[in-house]
Amino acid sequence: ADLGMGAWQAGKCWFTRGGHRQNHVDQGTTPPGFDDSAESWTTVVPSVSFATRAQATFNIAGSTTPVSDLIWTGCTNIPDGTTFTGTSTLNVDTDRDGKADHTKSVTVAPKCGRPVASPTVSPKDLGVGDRWPAGFYWWDLNVPKQGRYVLTATGHQGRTDAKESWTAAASRLMTAGVTSQAANGLVADWNQQDVTRDTKFDSHASSLLIAGGTDPVSDRVRLDVKSLDTPAHRDWDTNNDGRFDGNLRFTVKTTMHLTGGKSKAKTLDYASYHSVAGGNDSGTETFSFTPADFGLKTWPAGDAWFTSQVTGVTGADNGMNVACPAGQKLVGSKTDEYRLCLTDYDRETSELNGAENIHFTPKFKPSVTSKVEASTMSDGNPPKDEITVNLNTRTVSGLKVTARADVYWTPDKGADGTALPANRKHVAAVTPLVFDAASFRDGVATKTYDPAKDPAMKNVLGRLGTGYVTYVWRIDRTDLTGQQVTYGWDWHARGWTKTLTFESDRLLDMDATVSDGWRPGREQAEQTTGWWLKVTKIGYLGHDAHGRFQPDRPAKGAVLNMQETVDQTGRTPVAGATTNTITLNNKG
Prior knowledge:
The protein is an all-beta fold. 2% of the residues lie in helices and 40% in strands.
């Protein structure tokens, strides 16, 4: 103030001392002090500057790591190590309105020439919960006027400083899953419930698959996606057209399994997803399989089923160049806005899902065999016959079987086989035997045929001649068709008996007829019929009216040649008939 200053200003100061003439001083003098270090000094102005950088920043919301602010203090004309006090304030703008919604201040002690970190601030310290929310973050530094060196309040506002501010994009989650319906599923209408012991299959037409075919079987798989955030979003489809944005695709794997352990997996990339507005077909793709996929020529009998799951994502637009946590898949990211991750996506559909289960039902070929009760007969009658019908399956019930037979006579046994002898003579067709469904046990039923009780044999009984009588039984397909039969099996070998109802002709693996053929060993009886022939000579003894006939003279020693004729007149032999030579005894 003596010099008219409010405070010492920067510059050089010195004293100038003057002396006037006086005793012992012959002449006055004025020594200059400017260049005299003992009489001069320089006054400097201290200055402080602060450089800051936010630490442990993050670009995705959801982190729990505390953050801090690193402060570098630049000092001029201040001793190194001088410490100041100030305040660092963390700010976050969560609604992007340009204003801080939450703040937290911590005391800092910047030190000349030293980097000093502020105390850390956690999400709880800031009052935003356990994790950092999405928003715009920045640090502000304020150092008030203090001591000899900070002559005015100073600091640093970090909102516009890229080193002191950052954006945390929203960490968003979505999930995906599949539902499916096999085209030939045992359960229809996309019912995704697991089959239980009590589940009954309704035998709808498409579920009745037959083993041995080669046609493809298919599974329709529907992709469903949804947001796990509140409020919900649709970041995968920003224009809401039911299709994924850009090149984004969801990969779905479907595996077909066969009884016995064979399986085949196929994958498809989905460009769309299911939505109610899009109808049942939206977000649905079809996976087809053939026997060749399994190294087979035809479909084997037994259970088969499909399982499906989402396996990943391709074509994600990753504008932020970020990754998702382990176990999640990146669906997309948009700088300063969001990172979208897929979680809980790889759940595989259940192998017990009725809509995903199919069954290849085996065909069956019934057979008929018989065995006569007597291998020799002498009464001119056919023998009784025991007939066995075998469905050759224990899994089909409800079938009524009609067995038909023809009776033949032959002069010899004939050869065992399916071909009938050329020299056979048709005796009669028996009245068919009907085996009702209830008569079968484990697919087998037996009846005894008695020709004596068959009206169709009334003109045959007692009239069969010496030779061989043979039954030939058969089953005609036309007698088996048009029936409803039940097929049952142990589903997935769980001890759960399941059934399907079929039109019988779909399960028949036979041509027009099945027959046991010509089987002399068990379907034939040798017929020996006793008969006798007496020949007498008719002679006329005497002359003219005086003579008389003598009809009772035996034709002893006569040689007769006998042949079978076409009728009782005896005029025309049967073509190729055998000639039998008979020599009569003494009695003719």
